[in-house]
Amino acid sequence: MKLFNQRNALSKWVRQEKMAGKSIGFVPTMGALHTGHIALIKQARSENNLVVCSVFVNPIQFNKAEDLKAYPRTLDSDLAQLEQSGCDAVFCPEVKEIYPEPETRVYDFGHLDKVMEGRFREGHFNGVAIVVNKLLNIVEPHRAYFGEKDFQQLQVVRALARMEGHDVEIVSCPTVRESDGLALSSRNVRLTEAQRKEAPKIYQALQMARDLYPGHGVHFIKENVTAHINRSSELTVEYFEIVWADNLLPVDTPEAGRTAVACIAVYAGPVRLIDNLTLYS
Length: 281
Ligand code: PAF
Description:
The chain is of the alpha/beta class. The chain folds into two domains: 2-173, HUPs (Rossmann fold, 3-Layer(aba) Sandwich), CATH 3.40.50.620; 186-279, Pantoate-beta-alanine ligase, C-terminal domain (Pantoate--beta-alanine Ligase, Chain: A,domain 2, 2-Layer Sandwich). Helices cover 40% and strands 20% of the residues. It contains eleven helices and nine strands. The chain has helices spanning 7-19, 35-47, 65-70, 75-84, 95-98, 117-120, 124-139, 151-164, 193-198, 201-212, 218-230; strands at 2-4, 24-29, 50-55, 89-91, 143-147, 169-173, 235-244, 260-268, 271-279. The strands form two sheets. The protein has a six-stranded parallel β-sheet with strand order 1-4-3-2-5-6, sandwiched between helices. α7 (124-139) packs across α8 and α10 (201-212) runs antiparallel to α11 (218-230). The radius of gyration is 19 Å and the shape is globular. Pantoate is lined by residues 28-30, 58, 61, 128, 131-132, 150, 153. Pantoate binds next to β2 and α7.
């Protein structure tokens, strides 16, 4: 596995490989890799000749300094897992390499980046869009892989790729879960034993929403789901929304054949967990 710290060196290598006819799959990450990331890499592996992965904790997508500080950094274990899962090249830049100048760019994705995560994490999606745009410019992959756990991020990245004219296929991959339903996340390692025990209630509540939809009103579902989680002394719902999958606008009345998504953010102590589940009618 090749290791790059400099953007130009990586771009040069990728260009040579593309000239030799190789297809490139790209998996951007912030490290602290878990089975969910490895699933993205395996999918990229199966659909491309070469897989490039980035490990970069992007400071400008954190809206709280303490969250950035607490974000797990496990580079040695990340590199070992990447090597084992068949990654061909990894890009681990310093912050200065990605941001030689302070960033001033402001994206506007309409309501896509204003609701849910956008509402509670100001500037988050702008930071994600800036770094993903830079990474796509550096790697110029044929395909880039993103997890469905970050459903809103996926929609923002698709909009970004269209807006910036990136010639890349954005591929979404299903959420990987623990056997008790908890969605895999780099933040799970920060949960206390008591919080970890209660955290599967998030997925249970989403399943409850799926069972109640579309027979019950959206308001009723939101109240029941929120109450189910808030009954736990370890968990507090930040938001729970039912939105249309295609545009993230809130669902008022279910429509036959149109897919909705239940999206949730929950605090377990200081640890913020998000999850979502598709609802069919
Ligand atoms: O999903 C993530 O891990 C990050 O938001 C991403 C896409 C790597 C950008 O920093």
